[in-house]
Design a protein that fits this description.
Layout: E1 12-13, E2 28-33, H1 46-62, E3 68-74, H2 86-102, E4 107-112, H3 114-122, E5 128-134, E6 168-174, H4 182-195, E7 199-204, H5 215-231, H6 237-244, E8 253-254
Parallel strand pairs: 2-3, 2-4, 4-5, 5-6, 6-7, 7-8
Antiparallel strand pairs: 1-3
């Protein structure tokens, strides 16, 4: 007898990650969006969720004095699934849930891989102040439903970018990424910069998709950006320079070894 497929779970927020010394009131939220797959209706991978927890803890520590809460989003399924853009829809749901739970607080969407694409696509929500896309999976123009619901914003069916106006946007990509093409994230950043000057991109030389080789630097960069964009802290000099620099300089900014050891140096 054929087995009946189990229904997919609803999207939900993982437990809030906060430090013991953080204020009781939540003043800002970062939503971490795990990696996924282009096409799949399977349940989300527990590994992709677990992969985001160390970063969630690091961000919560960095923003504890400002009342930062971090949540890792649990998707309904692991696939983007063409024009359904399910991961982006789940990201938008998660922002709405933050508003319901915490009220009018600034939100940063921080995604990795397919989660990076979801962060960029859902970044137009009114509650979103900033978007961090790490090794984002992006389609070639006109492929995989890139046009989406906001296709008028994209050139030749490319991912939309005009909805990012007014947000702080940071992309980070390893130059040796064999899964997601770094050149595609550069092209998106180039278009986004024309629509929104508060856009920059860092390249992590010799690193791959998981950004493991320079994890400490990537984590420090993420913490500096999240706390700066949500709470108005001064950005580290390299981030401020990248945001101010014209393309392509501010979109091919190398992430220096040791970033984070002396952020204001």
């Amino acid at each position: 007898m054929a087995q009946r497929a189990l229904p997919l779970p609803a999207a939900r927020l993982g437990r809030a990650v906060r430090t013991a010394g953080a204020p009781t009131a939540v003043s800002g939220v970062v939503l971490l969006l795990p990696d996924g797959e282009p096409d799949s209706h399977r349940r989300p991978s527990p590994l992709s969720y677990a992969f985001q927890l160390p970063l969630a803890r690091a961000l919560a520590r960095a923003g504890q004095d400002d009342g930062l809460a971090a949540h890792v989003v649990r998707y309904r399924c692991r696939g983007w699934n063409a024009t359904d853009a399910q991961l982006a829809a789940d990201a938008e749901w998660a922002v709405e849930e933050v508003v319901r739970r915490y009220g009018d607080v600034p939100v940063c969407l921080a995604g990795h891989g397919m989660g990076g694409r979801a962060a960029l696509r859902a970044g137009g929500h009114a509650a979103v102040d900033s978007v961090l896309a790490m090794a984002p999976w992006l389609p070639e123009a006109g492929v995989d439903g890139a046009n989406g619901a906001n296709g008028a914003n994209g050139a030749d069916g490319a991912e939309p970018v005009k909805h990012l106006l007014g947000r702080q946007v940071l992309l980070v990509h390893g130059t040796n990424d064999a899964r997601t093409d770094p050149e595609l994230s550069f092209r998106l950043a180039e278009r986004a910069k024309k629509a929104n000057r508060d856009t920059c991109r860092f390249e992590v030389h010799s690193d791959g998709h998981a950004l493991r080789q320079h994890r400490a630097e990537v984590t420090a960069l993420a913490a500096d950006f999240v706390c700066g964009s949500l709470f108005g802290r001064a950005y580290a000099r390299p981030v401020a320079d990248a945001l101010a620099a014209p393309p392509p300089l501010g979109l091919r900014m190398p992430l220096a070894a040791g970033f984070g050891k002396s952020l204001r140096g």
